[in-house]
Amino acid sequence: MSGVRGTVNIATERCKGCDLCIPACPPRVLEMSTATNALGYHFPLLHDGCTGCSACADVCPDFVFEVWRYG
Amino acid sequence: MTEMRLIAPSSPALLQSPDHELCPGCGHPVAWRQVLEVVEELGIADRTIIVVGHGCYTQMMIRSDLDSLQCLHGRGPAVATGVKRMLPDAIVITLSGDGDMVSEGLAEVLHAAGRAERITSLLFNNGVFGDTGGHMTASTVVGQRTKTSLSGRDPEQHGYPIDVSRLLANVEGTAYVGRGAVNTAGLVARTKRMVKRALQLQMEGAGFTFVEVLTMCPTGWFVPTAAGPEYLEEAMMATYGIGELKAPEA
Amino acid sequence: MTRVLQQGSEAVADAAIAAGCRFFAGYPMLPFTELLEHMSRKLPGAGGVCINADTEIEAVNMALGAAATGARAATGSCGQGIALMQEAVAEAALNELPLVIFNMARGQQDYFQATRGGGWGDYRTITYAPKDVPEAIEHTYLLFHLADLHRTPVVMYGDYIIAHTHVGVEPSVPDLGPLPTKEWALDGSMGGTGRARQIWTWDRGKPNTPGLGPDAHWKDVAAKYDRIDQTEARSEQRLVEDAEVVIASWGTTATVVDYVVDELRADGVRIGSFRPLTLWPFPGAAFARAVAGASRVLVYELNAGQMLDDVRIHAPDRSAVRFIGSVSQDQTGMRQGDLLDAAVVRDRVLSALKEGS
């Protein structure tokens, strides 16, 4: 998995579907789901290419992202 | 097996619970997270007292693991004065929105700065009284639509916004004024550095320190949630520039 | 103990400092101004802080903040300035913070303000109305003690006369008994422990330490004031045992009234007097007993009838009550006027007694 430097755990049940993480992610590896959580909101899904930069966590109002880096 | 390092926990250690009732896309928790992280990083949680005004951000106070005093609308800097004068070694932080500080509490913050009270006041400015449903404050920018300026703030009828950071920067008792924002990750990081600088100055016994943070209120702004960051940049930042308006000589 | 000649304001300031007051904030306003001046001069030397605030609202909020740290804190003004402080007084009450408020009043027109309160919610302030400077000193010690004991704002109803009269005083600090420790006080130390403290009138608490919430908390606070009502009332009465007429008055007015009572007794009038020391709790039970044998109850106060309401509530026979007081202000507007006069009181008492019953 070259180029994958990090990953995030996403607390999908807490997300309120504000979408702010989507454009905040520099490599654009987040995409809002079509499914909805118990609150009725769409939530982010992670694609390949996360760098563990934590921009998503920085802009998230609902404390959804736990950010990890490899190595 | 590749090693993994935790870069950021989902929720700061000083937040007892991340589940809050603020709107989707609200900027307040984004800003408050940075404050809690700075308090933890500076190692001052066990001598910090937060004095919190009235607004949506009370939701952050009631979940924060810091000794807290909820105060009357606008009165935070006066209440904090009493706290700090009795506990000079405590780190005293006030938290207000623009309704609380620029409307109701303008006298209190200016006088605290005048007296060079060694407290740090934070202003989460979204240009509305959010908690009451989105009404005009003294910070509402020209053209901004609120429930009491439905066609947009009109100078003819409503006058102009008051830039409290600029006022405070001109008060001799003020040691530091920074204005940040939380609509992009880059500005979030820059805001965190301002908060850290302000609190470090308080720890050093410098005079009044102040950080204003522009935050999103898509509900109060009548914009779609995802459009909050862009509206903040186009409407709020056009009136309120980002940066350090006053800082001690390096 | 040396006897010293002191202005009332200075005697009160000294008493407050001796009682352990370490924070005072005020805004100059006659006749309260001298108390602020004396505190400003003397409190720093005792290790305290005195701030000349830029508004009354700031002053009371600063004092509230100081009280939240556990310090003995006070503020004051005259009634007109205390009117501005009402929201914060209510806030202190519902936060259960001790706070001493000195009303150096311009007269007797603030009885309603002191006893009914102009803030919000179900709260009261224990209010003492000294009749002279020695009582003002005694009540100062008492008020700091009661504020801490009951975790409530409290009021001293002084006035221009008490503030400005020079009297020979020989004060000594009384031992008023033990007080609970202030575990609720904020000092930052619980931050990061998972059990950080919160002071909020809504008492919602935090996730790890939930509070009662506004409903239960406000009911609790109301119940506390009910208990205080049962236990903290104080009064004084003179010559009521065989009195046909009892005259009720309070504060400095009572010294003039009692002078007249003694004069009339010498003339054979069976008159007695009743004086609440606490305007709240109003000593209703003691009052009812004091006037039980009287056919006439007179009220003399320098307003349009404020303690009169409490007299009517507690008098066994409301039809026996007569108001013989009046608004009275001197031309400067700063103090009681011409009707604080023994001849006037005497006249009005005698007229009331002549009235057919």
Percent of residues in β-strands of chain C: 15-25%
CATH architecture of chain A: 2-Layer Sandwich
Integer tally of domains of chain C? 2
- The amount of beta strand of chain A, in percent, is 15-25%
**Largest sheet: spatial strand order of chain A:** 1-4
| Topology of chain C as a string of helices (H) and strands (E) | EHEHEHEHEHEHEHEEEEHEEHEEHEHEH
Straight-line N-to-C gap of chain A: 13 Å
Q: Largest interface by residue count? A: B-C, 41 and 46 residues
The quaternary organization reads as heterotrimer
Name of the CATH first level of the largest domain in chain C: Alpha Beta
Q: How many strands, which pairing sense, and closed or not: the largest β-sheet of chain A?
A: 2 strands, antiparallel
Radius of gyration of chain A, CA atoms, in whole angstroms: 12 Å
Summarize this entry quickly.
Chain A is 13% helix and 24% strand. Chain A has 71 residues and is of the alpha+beta class. In chain A, 45% of the residues are buried.
